[in-house]
Design the sequence.
């Protein structure tokens, strides 16, 4: 199979006159990294991989073993639909290996690959559909607050929606890249957008999220606009989330579906959900990895705060959407805390690991929480056994550090590096004196 | 025993059955048994394989994978005969491009010998397979692997290309997901029929809104490329 794929890639590159092939991979923090090779080099890269010095990539090599190997995944070879017509470029996602060919444990793509492969022993595949939110702003000026392009609101379709054309061109570009879009609309906040992708296999979807973030920024930049996936760029309005819809399939059948259950959920779905709930706090540092992430996870802005589930309650962490026309294959769980600043490989891997821990150990699903949890007092919540998500990056790092689940799923290398890097981020934040403090305390104290 | 001078034939079987070995020997063919594609590559004579006999009776999945590699490899022998058990005749459907003749297994030695003689004696290698598939605004060049719609190049991944090629070569016909999975991906693929759905969606996205309905969903059956043969 790989031979035929490589043959296809080489012929296509030659036929289409590809000048540069960009080898893409992702660092531990979720930044897309790339280096380019010429078409002549492609055959060699496909068969032997390309060596590069990984020591300057975040979360990659320790200095003493800095050289690693990028091995292209030929099924992800894709001509890029932008740039100069006379110098066509293509991209291909890579897996990172040690020089001896063994998988490199600092590579987030392989963390997800490992989780997905271990699922195969259960005969299951993991499908994901993310709803990705982001903002458009005028080009940023250092030290100034970001300036939205419009004052449009949820579903607005008026001339106020200056961002409609941008969104349209973004979607066209995504579709040319084989990333089908299900919905797109103006979200609640000024110049905030939401684009919902159609479900796909978890690894392909993580690749698609990386491509998505680049396409959104690329199209914005072509229009002299700035796009950001920062979770909470504006105070007092909704932030940007990445609600993640998940389902498990056994062959053709949605393994979350059970026609005889009052919720139409199978025992597998229930224990998977129980796993997500029980381990939610442990994986929050991965799904919400920045200081700013926690400014989104507050009451009053449609972001989850409480660790609970319900069918139609958007204040909880997990929602079980009711499938259209009772379509069984659309049965899924929507996990609502992640934000688009996360590393999608690590986030999807952790969600899968947490859910499957619940399945393998037969966790019991707690009751549905259908009340508006924001209106309940602490005593009421604790009576219902409903906990809260970590309140800050520091809190979630503390919980993650104690988590065997996170250590096992991420592997020692990424686990340790991530904690170290993020603790430093928290320390930098803690020593910063903010405008809030100056305004509040300087005159009065 | 006379030697038929046509060159070396590659025989796929794991192992090659004694009846098959005896029949080939008695008919005077020079042959080499292999149980994998790698084996055939290693054992390939400098002049290439003169023909192939592939036994589907033991492990059909592995055998089809072998035939597929054979057709796509550089050492493509012009003539391939498959031995197919009577109960698996349906497996031949839509694989016409993979073999040149077949013989039911268990086979009668003189029938196999006759078919071999006829196949190997045919001077035309194979009727030249057309390199161009065209349907409405869609064109596929099978030689260069390039696809275009309304003269705009379609940049497809390998599996998207293979799926579109298969569909476009069989317009108007309805396929189940399972059929597409086994004919396009081959059996070796893990992931189930769901894989077909996501590939179809990606293909439709790339075809663009105005051409997305080239691939139609046939409710609770599967997919059809282009118009049905009954014009509806």
Sequence:
């Amino acid at each position: 199979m790989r031979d035929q794929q490589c043959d296809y890639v080489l012929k296509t590159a030659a036929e289409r006159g590809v000048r540069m092939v960009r080898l893409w991979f992702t660092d531990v923090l979720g930044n897309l990294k790339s280096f380019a090779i010429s078409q002549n080099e492609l055959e060699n890269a496909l068969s032997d991989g390309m060596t590069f010095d990984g020591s300057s990539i975040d979360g990659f090599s320790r200095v003493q073993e800095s050289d690693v190997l990028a091995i292209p995944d030929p099924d992800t070879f894709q001509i890029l639909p932008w740039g100069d017509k006379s110098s066509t470029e293509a991209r291909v996602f890579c897996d990172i290996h040690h020089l001896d060919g063994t998988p490199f444990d600092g590579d987030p793509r392989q963390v997800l690959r490992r989780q997905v492969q271990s699922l195969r022993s259960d005969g299951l595949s993991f499908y994901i559909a993310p709803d990705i939110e982001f903002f458009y702003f005028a080009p940023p000026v250092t030290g100034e607050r970001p300036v939205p392009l419009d004052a449009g609101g949820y579903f607005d379709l008026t001339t106020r929606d200056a961002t409609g054309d941008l969104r349209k061109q973004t979607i066209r570009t995504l579709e040319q890249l084989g990333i089908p879009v299900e919905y797109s609309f103006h979200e609640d906040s000024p110049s905030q957008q939401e684009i919902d992708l159609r479900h796909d296999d978890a690894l392909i979807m993580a690749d698609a999220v990386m491509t998505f973030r680049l396409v959104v920024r690329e199209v914005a930049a072509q229009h002299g606009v700035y796009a950001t996936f920062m979770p909470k760029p504006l105070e007092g309005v909704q932030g940007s989330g990445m609600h993640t819809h998940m389902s498990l399939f056994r062959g053709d059948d949605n393994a979350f579906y059970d026609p005889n259950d009052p919720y139409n959920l199978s025992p597998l779905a229930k224990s998977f959900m129980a796993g997500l709930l029980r381990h939610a706090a442990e994986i929050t540092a991965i799904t919400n990895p920045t200081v700013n992430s926690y400014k989104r996870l507050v009451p009053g802005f449609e972001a989850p705060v409480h660790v609970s589930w319900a069918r139609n309650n958007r204040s909880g962490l997990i929602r079980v959407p009711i499938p259209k026309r009772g379509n069984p294959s659309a049965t899924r769980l929507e996990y609502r805390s992640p934000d688009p600043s996360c590393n999608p490989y690590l986030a999807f891997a952790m969600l899968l690991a947490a859910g499957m821990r619940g399945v393998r150990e037969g966790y019991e699903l707690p009751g549905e929480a259908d009340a508006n949890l924001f209106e309940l007092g602490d005593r009421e919540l604790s009576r219902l056994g409903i906990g809260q998500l970590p309140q800050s990056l520091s809190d979630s790092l503390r919980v993650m550090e104690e988590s065997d689940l996170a250590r096992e799923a991420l592997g020692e290398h990424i686990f340790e590096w991530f904690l170290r890097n993020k603790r430093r981020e928290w320390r930098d934040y803690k020593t910063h004196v903010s405008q809030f403090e100056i305004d509040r305390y300087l005159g009065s104290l | 025993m006379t030697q038929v001078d046509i060159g070396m034939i590659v025989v796929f079987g794991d192992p090659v059955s004694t009846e098959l070995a005896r029949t080939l020997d008695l008919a005077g063919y020079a042959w080499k048994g292999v149980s994998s594609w790698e084996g055939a590559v290693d054992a390939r004579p400098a002049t290439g394989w003169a023909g192939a006999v592939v036994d589907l009776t033991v492990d059909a999945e592995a055998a089809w994978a072998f035939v597929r590699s054979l057709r796509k490899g550089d050492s493509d022998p012009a003539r391939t005969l498959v031995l197919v058990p009577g109960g698996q005749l349906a497996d031949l459907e839509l694989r016409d491009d993979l073999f040149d003749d077949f013989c039911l297994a268990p086979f009668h030695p003189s029938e196999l010998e006759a078919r071999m003689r006829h196949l190997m004696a045919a001077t035309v290698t194979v009727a030249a397979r057309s390199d161009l598939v065209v349907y409405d605004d869609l064109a596929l060049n099978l030689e260069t692997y390039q696809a275009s719609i309304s003269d705009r190049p379609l940049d497809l991944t390998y599996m998207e290309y293979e799926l579109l090629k298969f569909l476009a070569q069989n317009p108007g016909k309805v396929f189940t997901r399972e059929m597409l999975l086994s004919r396009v991906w081959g059996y070796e693929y893990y992931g189930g029929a769901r894989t077909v759905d996501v590939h179809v969606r990606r293909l439709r996205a790339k075809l663009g809104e105005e051409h997305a309905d080239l691939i139609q969903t046939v409710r609770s059956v599967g997919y059809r490329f282009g118009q049905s043969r009954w014009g509806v």
